Amino acid sequence: MVISQLLKDVHIKYKSPNVYPNIEIEHITENTGDLLNHTCFFCIRGKFFDGHHLIEQLDHNKTSLIIAEEKLDTEIPYIVVDNTRKALALISRNFNNNPTSKLNMVGVTGTDGKTTTSLIIKHLIDTFTSCAYIGTNGLYYKNKRIPTELTTPKPIHLHKYLTDLIKEQVNYVSMEVSSQGLDYYRAEGIEFNIAVFTNISHEHLDHHKTFDNYLNSKMKLFKQLKEDDVAIINFDQEEIAMKIIQNCKAKVFTYGMNKKADFYISNVSSSMYQTKYDLHTPFGNFYDINLNLFGDFNALNSVAALITCYSLGFDFKKAISALNYINSIEGRMQILDERQPFNVIVDFAHTPNSLDKLLNNISPLKRNKMTVVFGSAGDRDKTKRPIMGQVTSKYADKIILTSEDPKTEEPLDIINSIYSGIDDIGKVEIIPDRKIAIEKALSEADLDDFVVITGKGNESSQQFNGYSVEHNDIHIATTFLKRRYHK
């Protein structure tokens, strides 16, 4: 692709004299180890590295163009832009011939519920046609599952995935859109037809610094929508919902337990394997819903998915029926059953709000004790840690504090921060090794107990200072239970 096509919609501040419109680009990258013939290289400023300092490492025979934020001392043709991350997103889109213009795109954002809502949307749309999912759990479409590094992938990878989906005749994409992904312009240039807002609570303040900044990042998704697009917004946080609506040109549907919402639910009841609720709609119809997932929060996630199907023109009653056949979502309120005489749940809850919702929903089902195994990620919002301890101590009979992903922090420093919020320290045990912590909780469980392992869901590794180790909560718990109860 020649650069005149590549640079569509990119605001250019300066071009070096040797930038010619017929320069051919066959590859784009931000990685100096990924140079091929006719490469366009992006200088990205990161937390620890600055691509502008890597210019001398570039192979002049392979690098045809550089995109930077400042003038460079190099013979390689280069262009200066305001923001190389934004340029990377737009150029990735152009390089792949704007794949989202050929797809029906649904973007889901919020502190909690992104993964579950996005996967329920995929499940429902798959009832009618082919839908892909992109998010924390990876890339899913048809019978394929491909791991991804980030909740919202980097633009180079994202637009390649979307191009591949078109080749595979996938017409719809349900995609998680994180606040950091929005801040880093990973979703820039994507033509979303529908955007869903699940909720917002205490999270990512290490990155955003203030709650208002966090909310403003979420709102970027809705500001992208056009008048003929649809915004689906949880109205239980009414003041926040109104702020989003006021900054959105699209048609809006609201949902929640709030009776002011367009679609609202009532009479929610949950068992371990099913949730029932009544759904009230703006067109006067009333539905009894049976959802094969546990928890009132999943009732709300399913309503967002139903409204998505309605907005896309799919048969509403058929979408409701499909909720009866949804499978449990890996690492999200996942119930492990290996014939043990107690209950084991693995979840991703890692914020005060999601922990509270999780444990509050489990508490009415308790017939004996509840043990909660959890930690908190390093190099992330430290202020939430004691709150998580406080929340957990409201519900748990025993708490095992352990490591999640310490990264550059000392594991015990993180654990002690959580510990400081717990009122009844007599119920706390500290076991930094997460595998040992999980096995200890399972080995001590009695008849009808609940063991709740939360924070990592189905993640496959733990991140330490400069290295990672293989770790999966589901695999560790399942292996232990099989060894003990499959005799």
From TrEMBL:
Q: What post-translational modification does the entry describe? A: Carboxylation is probably crucial for Mg(2+) binding and, consequently, for the gamma-phosphate positioning of ATP.
Q: Which residues bind ATP?
A: 110-116
Domain Mur ligase C-terminal residue range list: 331-457
Question: Pfam families, alphabetically?
Answer: Mur_ligase_C, Mur_ligase_M
Q: Name one GO cellular component term.
A: cytoplasm
Keywords for this protein: ATP-binding, Cell cycle, Cell division, Cell shape, Cell wall biogenesis/degradation, Cytoplasm, Ligase, Magnesium, Nucleotide-binding, Peptidoglycan synthesis
EC number assigned by the record = 6.3.2.-
Residues bearing N6-carboxylysine are: 218
UniProt-annotated binding residues for UDP-N-acetyl-alpha-D-muramoyl-L-alanyl-D-glutamate: 32, 151-152, 178, 186
Q: What Gene Ontology terms describe what this protein does at the molecular function level?
A: acid-amino acid ligase activity; ATP binding; magnesium ion binding
Listed GO biological process terms: cell division; cell wall organization; peptidoglycan biosynthetic process; regulation of cell shape
This protein's cofactor list reads:
Mg(2+)
Q: Return the protein name.
A: UDP-N-acetylmuramyl-tripeptide synthetase
The organism's taxonomy opens as: Bacteria, Bacillati, Mycoplasmatota, Mollicutes, Haloplasmatales
